[in-house]
């Protein structure tokens, strides 16, 4: 095993993965610098989710290496990977899953409560994020009383509340109305930049790519290009080879 370059917080080499025999990743390598916002784009089924799940330790790739700082993630025992995910990573899915018995602020505060923070501190941190995401007025509502777009904001607040080192977001704006998308994306990227949170963001949304520092493009499980924001605006027309 070769250790990753010092300036990459996250580093993957030659990842291969298949689901029930059908290939999802075929030799993807990439590095993500600390504080960088990296967009992963590609058509449906191109392997974006599988890549994020491998990078975040949810999935162990069939072949290849994943490193977080100087720690090998792909060789970690399951409990240690679980701890890494809980303590250092945040995750936002396109379909927000909240705990139905908890109200909005408790859902957002959950990572801090699970780590043993006091209710008062956890609530204060959760409320700060809920206000920034324009959902503070729903703090006492349960998930069933919220719109899908409001539930997604709660899931975003929950992912940010404990200031993770790396935030993985898998099509985070998918359940939002177009009018909401821009505001939520800008809140997310501004928060990440101000807190030096590294972000890896899978997306089909061109606006995401323009807010990112860099975009990598997947086609059929292979990495076919890297774009800077100015280029990303016209990415649909691009076909780059690495
Ligand atoms: N659990 C699974 N079982 C079987 N095949 C899967 C599974 N998850 C993904 N796949 C397949 O692996 C390939 C890559 O899927 P993946 O979800 O990583 O792509 P994606 O780019 O995130 O797609 P989408 O934008 O639709 O979420 C696809 O062909 C998909 O059908």
Brief summary:
The chain has 242 residues and is of the alpha/beta class. The chain is built from 8 helices and 10 strands.
Task: Describe the protein's architecture and organization.
This protein has 242 residues and is α/β, with parallel strands linked by helices. It has one domain (8-230): P-loop containing nucleotide triphosphate hydrolases (Rossmann fold, 3-Layer(aba) Sandwich), CATH 3.40.50.300. It is built from eight helices and ten strands. Strands 6-7-8-3-9-10 form a six-stranded mixed sheet, sandwiched between helices. A four-stranded antiparallel sheet has the order 2-1-4-5, covered by helices on one side. Strand 1 and strand 2 form a beta hairpin. Helix 3 crosses helix 4 and helix 3 runs parallel beside helix 5. The protein is globular and about 45 Å long. The structure holds adenosine-5'-triphosphate. Adenosine-5'-triphosphate binds next to strand 2 and helix 1. Pfam families: ABC_tran. It comes from Streptomyces camponoticapitis. Residues 10-242 form the ABC transporter domain. GO terms for molecular function: ATP binding. Belongs to the ABC transporter superfamily.
């Amino acid at each position: 095993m070769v250790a990753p370059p010092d300036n990459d917080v996250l580093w993957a080499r030659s990842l291969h993965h298949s689901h029930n025999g059908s290939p999802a990743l075929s030799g993807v390598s990439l590095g993500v610098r600390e504080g960088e916002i990296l967009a992963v784009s590609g058509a449906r089924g191109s392997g974006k989710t599988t890549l994020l799940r491998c990078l975040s330790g949810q999935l162990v790739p069939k072949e290849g290496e994943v490193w977080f700082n100087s720690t090998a993630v792909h060789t970690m025992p399951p409990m240690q990977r679980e701890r890494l995910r809980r303590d250092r990573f945040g995750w936002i899915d396109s379909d927000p899953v909240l705990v139905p018995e908890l109200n909005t602020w408790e859902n957002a505060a959950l990572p801090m409560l699970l780590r043993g923070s006091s209710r008062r501190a956890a609530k204060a941190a959760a409320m700060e994020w809920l206000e920034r995401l324009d959902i503070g007025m729903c703090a006492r509502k349960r998930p069933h009383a919220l719109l899908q777009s409001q539930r997604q904001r709660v899931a975003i607040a929950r992912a940010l509340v404990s200031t993770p080192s790396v935030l993985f977001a898998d099509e985070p704006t998918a359940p939002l109305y177009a009018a909401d998308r821009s505001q939520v994306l800008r809140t997310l990227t501004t928060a990440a930049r101000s807190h030096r949170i590294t972000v890896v963001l899978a997306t089909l949304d061109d606006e995401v790519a323009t807010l990112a520092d860099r975009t990598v493009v997947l086609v059929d499980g292979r990495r076919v290009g890297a774009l800077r924001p100015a280029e990303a605006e016209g990415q649909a027309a691009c076909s780059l080879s690495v």
